[in-house]
Each structure stands twice: as C-alpha cells, then as structure tokens.
Amino acid sequence: MLVTIHQPHYLPWLGYMHRMARADVFVLLDHVQFERGNGSSYQNRTRIRMHGDPDCVARWLTVPVAQRSLSERILDKEVDPGWRSASHASTLRHAYREAPHLGRYWPAVKELLARPWQRLIDLNIASIGLLREAFGIATPLVRSSTLEVSGAKSG
Fold first, then answer.
1. For an engineered disulfide with 77, which of 119, 120, 126, 134 has Cβ 3.0 to 4.6 Å away?
2. Which whole number is the average pLDDT over 116-131?
3. How much is the pTM?
C-alpha cells in the first residue's frame, strides 16, 4: 500500500495532484504547525502564470490569514475576514482567459472563491476537491487530525 502524506495546500500544483493520484491513500497533514513566513510554503498561497507575460513570470496568489499565535496548527488557521476573494477570481480569470477548458471549470472556481471561508483548511480541502474532480482522482483522503497521532514533522 502506498500512503502519501502532504500538508493541505491552496490550489495545489500539478505534482501534488500527481502524487495523490498515484497513492492508495493520501493523508492531509493538517494537525502540524502552520508555516508562517516560509518562502517555500504553499499552505495559503499558490503561483500562477499570467497570460501574455513574455517572460512567463509567475505571480503569487495569497490568502491572507489571521495571526493569533506562532504555534497555530494548520487546521486552526483562520482566513483573514477582510480577504477579498473576488480579486483572486479576477486574477485567475485574466491569467487563464484563453485556456481551452476555462469555460468548463470556471463556474466551479468562481463558486469556490465566492464562498465566505472562515478556516484555511476548509478552503484548501475544497480547492483540492475541485482539482480531484477535474482530474478524476478518486484516492481516499484522510486528515491527520482524525488519526489521533502526535509528533513533530521530523518524527
């Protein structure tokens, strides 16, 4: 049995989804500390390529989160109530306006971003779900917070 464990990311990249598709079980590592300010963290952000950019420079889309404590777990992290998800929708629509399948998936993306999210984990799981459906990935998901395990990420 192949088990893959990864932190839940916001609109994860293709390699993340490929790992999920190849696994027998995919564990969303949501009970560990939120990585604040880590330049390689994708827990509350993702990178997209902007259409028409001759240098193919990637742009960050970041979901702002409320800062309550340095030791907050991913599953407890709250989306900043002032987040304007409409700007994400506008940026995504502009970036992928000539993508051949935009019309097919845009209503679901727009609906996802229009919902009022309180917790980052719920937004991330919903964005992962949207991509799972688009790619036909049926790998079972398990949240680590439901497994009653403890320890550090290096454990």
1. 120
2. 96
3. 0.89
